[in-house]
Design brief:
The structure holds 2 protein chains of 2 kinds. Chain A is mainly alpha-helical. Chain A is built from 12 helices and 4 strands, in the order H-H-H-H-H-H-E-E-H-H-H-H-E-E-H-H. Chain A has 2 domains: 2-67, no CATH class; 83-228, Alpha-Beta Complex (Nitrile Hydratase, Chain A), CATH 3.90.330.10. In chain A, the strands form 2 sheets. Chain A has a two-stranded parallel sheet. Chain A has a two-stranded parallel sheet with strand order 2-3. In chain A, helix 4 packs across helix 5 (99-107). Chain A is globular and about 60 Å long. Mean pLDDT of chain A is 84; it is low at 1-28 and 30-42. Chain B is globular. Chain B has a 5-stranded antiparallel beta sheet. Helix content of chain B is 29%, strand content 16%. Chain B contains 8 helices and 5 strands. The chains are: A mainly alpha, B alpha+beta. Chains A and B meet through helix 1, helix 2, helix 3, helix 8 and helix 9 of A and helix 1, helix 2, helix 3, helix 4 and helix 5 of B. Chain B: Its EC number is 4.2.1.84.
């Protein structure tokens, strides 16, 4: 179909020649009327053009004294090395082994996690929702990409992409099938659409066969997807 | 606004495709965009709701064909130009041509990094008592503002039940448009899947949204 062939070309030109002054004015994203495509080299990728534009923006922000590049480096380093699903996994493992902590966690997630010195600090309004034999929870943000960063790190691409955002609230069992998992038909599926500044973390069920395991051992079983509700914890003996 | 960003219940986007061992970023520029958005937001150039609105106003065909961080970049650049922090000429030249505008919280430097690793606070003192109690039946209003809202289309007009009360929070609908925080009560409202998707819907499905009080009528 023709539109498939012309789409990259359109995107390329649009992103290169946005001119208007307000975000609500669509002409900001349209090609310049006088733009001559004949001398425009379309061999370059959208990526490289984007890279150049991103570099240009950072240079301008730096020269104008708004940001210090080293501070940007530090933000990136934190998300690459410090903040990730291991934070959430420790919270889940603690809840599996400490009934008082679990009760506090389900009552006020932020407050309970705040008492754990070894887990990264967490902001307000973290709501922890418990999977039970009767109910399976799944978290989505249909409007954008809201996600409990402090517990799970930055969201994976699929969480932010159209297929998940569109289908999770309508066909969650179909979405789970895409992950290769299924939930018995008798179990309620509860989907939490993160439409405000609350954030949701799923507390999965503790796998059978883990009696007597330490918190650290249990944390190894807790996957990122099990805390979003698109997967389950690993079972003992299964490959990680 | 009724934009393509409001995706709940749309068909045709295909399968979810998880990526094994996915890296935090797929390219260096993605990480720079994330850091610039976080830094400029923390410096006070915009609030989180305004930044969401700018991404939502990216035209549908561009929105749907751009990667996640590309959308962040497009929204950021347009917003900073609109708010007077830089000019289109500077962006095109890749260099500053005039002094910067004062930022509410000053330059974003290394000393600021630690504080942004924890989410901002959105709870505010209540200006009035809550209208609804846990267990109340409510109907999501049938509203179609052309500005920013966090009431997704797929629940509008439907009846649900109040399950949680999260207290009073900054109201995104006004904050995004820079018309003030206008704090409102925030509730988790649960809908039956079949009420939303009809008789063919999954009978075991319940869907909740977090809804601000102005989105709801008693039912």
């Amino acid at each position: 179909m023709a539109w498939i062939e012309i789409r990259p070309h359109l995107v390329c030109c649009m992103t290169a020649d946005r001119r208007a002054s307000t975000a609500t004015d669509q002409s900001a994203y349209l090609p310049a009327m006088s733009h001559d495509h004949s001398h425009h080299d379309h061999d370059h990728s959208e990526l490289s053009e984007t890279e150049l534009r991103v570099r240009a923006l950072e240079t301008v922000l730096t020269e104008k004294g708004y940001v210090e590049p080293a501070a940007l480096d530090a933000i990136i380093q934190a998300y690459e090395t410090k903040i990730g699903p291991h934070n959430g996994a420790r919270v889940v493992a603690k809840a599996w082994t400490d009934p008082a902590f679990k009760k506090a966690l389900l009552e006020d997630g932020s407050k309970a996690i705040g008492t754990l010195g070894h887990v990264s600090r967490v902001g307000d309004h973290l709501v922890v929702v418990e999977n039970t034999p009767q109910r399976h929870n799944m978290v989505v943000c249909t409007l954008c990409s809201c996600y409990p960063w402090e517990m799970l790190g930055l969201p994976p691409v699929w969480y932010k992409a159209s297929p998940y955002r569109s289908r999770a609230v309508k066909d969650p069992r179909g979405v789970l099938a895409d992950f290769g998992v299924s939930v018995p038909d008798a179990i309620e599926i509860r989907v939490w659409d993160s439409t405000a500044e609350t954030r949701f973390l799923v507390l999965p069920m503790r796998p059978a066969g883990t009696e007597g395991w330490s918190e650290a051992q249990l944390a190894e079983l807790v996957t990122r997807d099990s805390m979003i509700g698109t997967g389950f914890p690993r079972t003992p003996g299964a490959p990680s | 606004m009724n934009g393509v960003h409001d995706m709940g219940g749309m068909d045709g986007f295909g399968k979810v495709e998880p990526e094994a061992d996915e890296p935090v970023f797929h390219a260096d520029w993605e990480s720079r965009v994330l850091a610039m958005v976080r830094a400029m937001g923390a410096a006070g150039a915009f609030n989180i709701d305004t930044s969401r609105f700018y991404r939502e106003t990216i035209p549908p065909h561009v929105y749907l064909s751009s990667s996640y961080y590309k959308k962040w970049f497009l929204g950021l650049e347009e917003m900073l130009i609109d708010k007077g922090y830089l000019t289109r000429e500077e962006v095109a030249a890749g260099h500053a041509k005039q002094p910067g505008k004062a930022l509410k919280h000053g330059k974003f430097d290394l000393g600021q990094v630690e504080r942004i690793m924890v989410r901002g606070q959105f709870a505010r003192p209540a200006p009035a008592p809550a209208k609804f109690n846990i267990g109340d039946r409510v109907r999501a209003k049938n509203i179609h503002p052309t500005t920013h809202t966090r009431l997704p289309r797929y629940v509008r007009g439907h009846v649900g039940v109040i399950e949680l009360n999260h207290g009073c929070h900054v109201f995104p609908d006004t904050a995004a448009m820079e018309r003030g925080e206008n704090p409102q009560w925030l509730y988790t409202v649960v809908f039956e899947g079949r009420d939303l998707w009809g008789a063919d819907g999954d009978p075991t499905l319940k869907v909740s949204i977090d809804a601000f009080e102005p989105y709801l009528d008693p039912a």
